[in-house]
Amino acid sequence: MKILITGGTTFVSKYAAEYFVSKGNEVTVINRGSRPQVNGVTHINCDRTALGDRLNGKHFDLILDITAYTEEHIKSLLDSGVSFDDYIFISSSAVYLETNLQPFTEEQLCGYNSVWGDYGMNKLKAEQFLQAKVPNAYILRPPYFYGAYENLYREAFPFDCAMQDRPFYITQNGDMKLQFFNVSDLCLFVEVLIDKHPQKHIFNVGNKDIVTVKEWVDRCYKAAGKTAKFISVSKEVAQRDYFCFYDYEYVLDISKQNELMPDTVSLEEVLKEEFEWYKNNLNSVYNRKPYMEYIDNNLVRK
Predict the structure, then answer these.
(1) Phi, psi at 153, each rounded to 5°
(2) What CATH number does the domain located at 2-146+182-204 have?
(3) Which pTM value belongs to this model?
(4) Containing H/E element for 188?
(5) What does the domain layout of the chain look like in residue ranges?
(6) In the CATH hierarchy, which top-level class contains the domain 156-178+208-248+266-294?
(7) Does the structure show a pLDDT above 70 at 302?
(8) CA angle at residue 204 from 202 to 205, to 5 degrees?
(9) What is the DSSP code (8-state) at residue 159?
(10) Can you point out the beta strands (E) in the chain?
(11) pLDDT at position 287 over 90
(12) How does pLDDT run across 207-218, given as a tens digit for each residue?
């Protein structure tokens, strides 16, 4: 296929670009050229909101839109003069109201989520604009992505704690649930959608196995060859000051995904791969939060 991928140099979009190149596809990426490009792609060097005539008259079998965060991002691409057969937009589970019954289903009401704020609302407006302009577009709503090239300070935090033989400070019993989705499974599901063209056009995507915070940390430590020792923290302490996830538990209903793609990779397997990548690419993770400093200054018993 001829595929246009927005982004292509960090985490999800980088992995997707590499994946589809490796499958023999002709991949074009749009980004500002601030990081090295994946081998084998055609690079369009510009901001996606300033495309000019760079895409005018070009046709792609698939547009895989990974970096659209606002309605304007979608509009600028659709107004560029590009044509395409399929459009897949990676949205977010942040579009769901936190007051919805769980697990969240694709049919539930979407709207403002106080945890995610403008991020979720902007994703929702982008979805709505795309649906109005391209009714046959596919929209995917993932939970937390994870895997190699993860550039946010998530798995990297327990990896760092493990490598420094630190105990892990955890809210009460650590029983808050987390749901993840690996970027390799995302790419596989994209292939399934293109192959089967299901009538349904909005899908929750994610692992069917849900883990607690404690289980997730334990597996991160094991991926680093260590055993986690936990210290409980009172719920009165703001979780985000010392931990890499908000105090917000939600689970997605992924039954529609499972009908088309019943299997996903195991969390343990991918965490091992991610740790091997991370320890050789420490500087690739940005926006590190001072969790350890907060713990040492406020939670460690003197």
Answers:
(1) -85, 70
(2) 3.40.50.720
(3) 0.96
(4) helix 183-196
(5) 2-146+182-204, 156-178+208-248+266-294
(6) alpha beta
(7) no
(8) 125
(9) H
(10) 2-6, 26-31, 42-45, 59-65, 83-90, 138-141, 144-146, 168-171, 177-178, 180-182, 202-204, 211-212, 230-233
(11) no
(12) 988 999 999 999
